[in-house]
From TrEMBL:
InterPro entries: Cu-oxidase-like_N, Cu-oxidase_2nd, Cu-oxidase_C, Cu-oxidase_fam, Cupredoxin, CuRO_2_AO-like
Record protein name field: L-ascorbate oxidase homolog
GO molecular function annotations of the record: copper ion binding; oxidoreductase activity
Gene3D superfamilies named among the record's database cross-references: Cupredoxins - blue copper proteins (2.60.40.420)
Signal peptide: 1-24
Family stated for the protein in its record: Belongs to the multicopper oxidase family.
Highest taxon of the lineage: Eukaryota
Gene source species: Anisodus acutangulus
SUPFAM superfamilies tied to this protein: Cupredoxins (SSF49503)
Length: 558
């Protein structure tokens, strides 16, 4: 591996012809990460985990809107590695998105320097590995983007900020889980729930406090569900939570006793230490599972006396009633239209409800068997990754050697029991305003994430979608976000402008489903092939597969 300083590497990146052009006043933040294996035991069972600089969760990227982030990643694993920065829009820069369709992986024993800008964004995000089943073994961490000092925030500065990661966990390692999926079987139910890589039960002795609060002060908790498949409910013993931000958008500041957080979703709440100074439980419990799993952590008051109470706040309803409860909570989430902050462009005028829809895509997920092996699909197509990233073969002008565009139709087929296993790449017209409907005819909840964009989550309802349902859309103050849940036998609609040129992954955040095909890529090409719309291939980008020995295409020009 190279031993040069990450700052020197970053400087060379900035000076190179293909590098990202940034304004001189936009600061740079530099990080050097060593990705290694290490023994962890989130549920008390020792296993091989993926650590970054020896940590789980990994190092926090704490930055400000428009900062340039330079992360030199050394891969000390025995497998190829990619990291994605979920929720970061990578404006004009899908080269840095960290998905198998956009980048060659970082091979074992080598390093790669990511370089991207958190352009016009604020909020709570996270990074994680997209290769194989690495996500099941860790490798995740916080990416917090603050507003610039001149931009007022719609709440007082908290005494401190705390990142809380939780999700379901499997005691089998990522290699074993991958073998199960490659063999055509499901990985089954998770073994438990972790909170920041640890799991505790009520009454456990000598639990180390997760965080400490001082009486009378208010704290910001940035919470993310980094699990594999399980929605969770979060509540804090004796304390209310004021929702202030969700996936990069300031929200109307409603008060909640508990919040459902679905796989891949993040939000921020303010918690005021206004109770008797002692210890209190933070509770994370599963949602919509036949069997309940949960974990607790301790929030400690400085100078507090007395143990936690064993009486936990009650969870919300379950089964059908629980779905209705959760759906109603979703409807209570509203975009704070009076807040000053970085906003999606060009929807920042707030009048997204008055923009004419130029394309409607209705997507139905499915579960099926192909050759006796489990597969998941979207509209009858089950995606498979290619040896050469899709973005590279497109940039080099040879997509026909790897994939065909538009094999997935904008409407689902009548028979969803059969799927075709092929790369799933959908052409999208630059700057079109699209309506995407997700319909879930299965009995399990789904969550979806779109790279490169935020979208307006305008509706979630039970049953099947029809054009008449548009009258129920929230066309005024739907939250702009990047992840949407779709409840069993229900549908959800999102709207966005495809104004970010690149190759962008739309995927199930249930990683078993992602790995076995429930994903696609939108190819959004600018007809002008201009640096105004998309950056050139970075000079340090590794090449692989069929493009490795091909001559470089002519670069984009201004």
């Amino acid at each position: 591996m190279e031993s040069a300083s990450v700052k020197i590497v970053a400087l060379l990146l900035c000076l190179s012809i293909g590098a990202i052009v940034v304004k001189a006043e936009d600061p740079y933040l530099f990080f050097e990460w060593n990705v290694t294996y290490g023994t962890i035991a989130p549920l008390g069972v020792p296993q091989q985990g993926i650590l970054i600089n020896g940590q789980l969760p990994g190092p926090r990227i704490n930055c400000t809107s428009n900062n340039n982030i330079v992360v030199n990643v050394y891969n000390y694993l025995d497998e190829p590695l990619l990291l994605t920065w979920t929720g970061i829009q990578q404006r004009k820069n899908s080269w840095q998105d960290g998905t198998p369709g956009t980048m060659c992986p970082i091979m074992p024993g080598t390093n790669f320097t990511y370089h991207f800008q958190v352009k016009d964004q604020i909020g709570s995000f996270f990074y994680f590995p997209t290769t194989g089943l690495h996500r099941t073994s860790g490798g995740f961490g916080a990416l917090d983007v603050h507003s610039r000092n001149l931009i007022p925030v719609p709440f007082d500065k908290p005494a401190d900020e705390y990142n809380v990661f939780f999700g379901d966990w499997y005691n089998k390692g990522h290699k074993t889980l991958k073998k199960i999926l490659d063999g055509g079987r499901t990985i089954g139910r998770p073994d438990g729930i972790h909170i920041n890589g640890k799991s505790n039960k009520v009454g456990d002795k000598a639990i180390e406090p997760l965080f400490t609060m001082e009486a009378g002060k208010t704290y910001r908790y940035r919470m993310c569900n980094v699990g594999m498949r399980t929605s969770v409910n979060v509540r804090i013993q004796g304390h209310a939570m004021k929702l202030v931000e969700m996936e990069g958008s300031h929200t109307v500041q409603n008060i909640y006793d508990s919040l459902d957080i679905h796989v891949g979703q993040c939000l921020s709440v303010l918690v005021t230490a206004d109770q008797e100074p002692k210890d209190y439980y933070l509770v994370v419990s599963s949602r919509f599972l036949k069997y309940a799993i949960s974990s607790v952590a301790i929030l400690h008051y400085a100078n507090g006396k007395g143990p936690t109470s064993s009486e936990l706040p009650a969870p919300p309803p379950t089964n059908t009633e629980g779905i209705a409860w959760s759906m109603n909570q979703f409807r209570s989430f509203r975009w704070n239209l009076t807040a000053s902050a970085a906003r999606p462009n060009p929807q920042g005028s707030y009048h997204y409800g008055k923009i004419n829809i130029t394309r409607t895509i209705k997507i139905v997920n499915s579960r099926s068997q192909v050759g006796g092996k489990l597969r998941f699909g979207l509209n009858g197509i089950s995606h498979v990754d290619t040896d050469t990233p899709l973005k590279l073969v497109e940039f080099f002008g040879v997509p026909e050697k790897t994939f065909k565009y538009d094999l997935m139709a904008d409407e689902p087929p009548s028979d969803l029991s059969k799927v075709t296993i092929v790369p799933n790449v959908n052409n999208a017209t630059f700057r079109n305003f699209v309506e995407i409907i997700f319909e879930n005819q299965e009995k399990t909840i789904q969550t979806y994430h779109l790279d490169g964009y935020s979208f307006f989550a305008v509706a979630i309802e039970p049953g099947k979608w029809s054009p008449e349902k548009r009258k129920n859309y929230n066309l005024v103050d739907a939250v702009s976000k990047h992840n949407i849940q779709v409840y069993p036998n229900s549908w959800a609609t999102v709207m966005t402008t495809l104004d970010n040129a690149g190759m962008w992954n739309l995927r199930s955040e249930m990683w078993e489903r992602f790995y076995l095909g429930q994903q696609l890529y939108f190819s959004v090409l600018s007809p002008s092939r201009s640096l105004r719309d998309e950056y050139n291939l970075p000079d340090n980008q590794p090449l692989c597969g069929i493009v490795k020995s091909m001559p470089m295409p002519a670069p984009y020009t201004s």
